[in-house]
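Researcher: We're reviewing a set of sequences before deciding which ones to prioritize for further study. For each one, I'd like a predicted 3D structure that I can look through quickly. This is Betaine-aldehyde dehydrogenase. If possible, include the structure in token form so it fits the rest of the review sheet.
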Amino acid sequence: MTADRLTNFIDGEPLSNQSGETFAVINPATGEQLYEVEVADEFVREKAIESARRGFAVWSATPAKERARILHRAVALLRENNDSLANVEVLDTGKPIQEASEVDVATGADVIEFFASLSPTQVGQQQEVDGDFYYTRREPLGICAGIGAWNYPLQIACWKSGPALAAGNAMIFKPSEETPRGAVELARVFIKAGVPRGVFNVVHGEGEVGQWLTSHDQIKKVSFTGEVGTGRKVMGSASETLKDVTMELGGKSPLLVFEDADIEEAVSAAMLGNFYTQGEVCTNCTRVFVQQSIYDKFMDSLLERTRNNIIAGDPTDPDTNFGALISEEHLELVMSYIEKGKQEGATVAIGGERIKPDSAPDGYFVAATVFTDCTDDMTICREEIFGPVMSVLTFDDENEVIKRANATPMGLAAGVMTTDIRRAHRVVSKLQAGICWINSYGASPAEMPVGGYKLSGVGRENGIETLHHYTQTKSVYVGMNKLEAPF
Ligand code: NDP
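Model: Here's the predicted structure for Betaine-aldehyde dehydrogenase, in token form for your review sheet.
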């Protein structure tokens, strides 16, 4: 790679394409081009597969303990280079450095560390049966594909490659064409740490390159993060070759604020779950249900804190806590949802417009927006917006709010704010969501499995069970008795 051109990263090094085809990556905070990226053409794709096959042969034969040692070295390198990697993420995504330097690299490293530690713990079972016995081996799948979204580029690449590599697989990763650098930086870290060439290759391009990965017969599994609609296409394509799939998709998650909640904590949850990463987080609680009796108090604090505590601007400034949306196109999409909200009768309590902060006047910023007077059937309360747009709704009783919270085809996350311990667990047990937070919102440690119910996903990432998604069981039956046959 030169400063202004990023190539595919195959077999441990940059590989130029033959077609010469490139696309541009734009800094969302300035609207200026950052660099060009080479598309993975036929030549690159073929090399990616050949190299991953060789990489898999070496890596799957490497003792698990050794794989763990190498991956732990990668974790150390990620942490040592936290600030420069965070910078890459800030330039590509437009998110504040304040977040990227605290969260993005750290949570990526944590997940690789967690799976590296688990790598040597994979055991099979054995059982005696009628004097014979069998045992099982957990074996890697082969070459896996990772396809990532643009909101947490490096973290997503770590969350997918961590368990895949720990289990002995190779991975070909396609980052979003809007944020392709983080994955290449990770590939470099892996090589520096001693991961063999070909075990983690990065290919660039749009959906068509992703589609190629999902249909290739040498690829045994696809781990995808993106929109529900794209997820459907990925699953359809993967079904041709009966690939295993993991899908981390979108959401329209509810936050339930009961009258006995700590109001300031509830406001913190609502703001974290709508304005962190300028609202571009899959688990966001974009439907905030507030019990009628505390509505006024809740709104006073929410509006006061939204007005006074959000600092939008140049994301490289450590004081900025609210960044730019990923692209002009996405900004227009978010603004079109805001317009729909107004047209359908919701009230803009704050925000609702594009902003041009002095320190980043050409960036794609939308103000932190809160809608009130919302009803469940409004477009803004049904569809994922993926921007800083919160809809506040009110409710009277517990059963009613559970029913309304569940009335969505999606089921990624949910939050419950209450100081009544019994209510908290009772409500959570009835919520149709793969991730539930009680008096918290958004935390996602490596140890905790995450994924969606309903249309929000298939399978899980993180947590011990994810390792099973990257291995297959081989049963070995051993005859100890003399083998007889009727022939
Ligand atoms: P997209 O679905 O648009 O894209 C995701 C990835 O899929 C990109 O790399 C994209 O390539 C690629 N892609 C596009 N078409 C195809 C295809 N036909 N076959 C294979 N791959 C394809 O999602 P976004 O990038 O817009 O990300 C935002 C979405 O991701 C939101 O819905 C959000 O909720 C979800 N998300 C879910 C998370 C979770 O853990 N549940 C976490 C983070 C985000 P390209 O963009 O380069 O064209």
